Amino acid sequence: MASQSKVGFIGLDDLSLELAASLLRAGYGVQAFETFSPLMDAFLKLGGVGCVNPMEAGRGVGALIILISHADQINDIIFSHEGALKGLQKHVVIILHSTISPAYIQKLEKSITGNFFLHISC
């Protein structure tokens, strides 16, 4: 069962580091997958837990925040062998913050909805 007190991130930036810090101060468990070492180092210094792949970042969370801007990367991160969907429990909230096209968003919604709650922020 997904924990309402655990949040996962895939992709980090300055804003998401601030959000992660706020969640950690509020007592939430925060875990993340990020390939850019300086951002992951900053996240770990905040007290977050590093993950080796997107699937691990989604494991056991109540919400998963994805900060990726390219459709090809989103496909890999969500649907690949070690993709986020493999680690998510049903009824997890997925927050996608991206600049992908509306047509791709519709395709993504059809692929994900039913088991998860998808919120898209462009």
UniProtKB/TrEMBL annotation:
It comes from Ilex paraguariensis (yerba mate). This is 6-phosphogluconate dehydrogenase NADP-binding domain-containing protein. GO terms for molecular function: oxidoreductase activity, acting on the CH-OH group of donors, NAD or NADP as acceptor. InterPro entries: 6PGDH_NADP-bd, NAD(P)-bd_dom_sf. It comes from the Eukaryota. The lineage of its organism: Eukaryota, Viridiplantae, Streptophyta, Embryophyta, Tracheophyta. Residues 6-113 form the 6-phosphogluconate dehydrogenase NADP-binding domain.
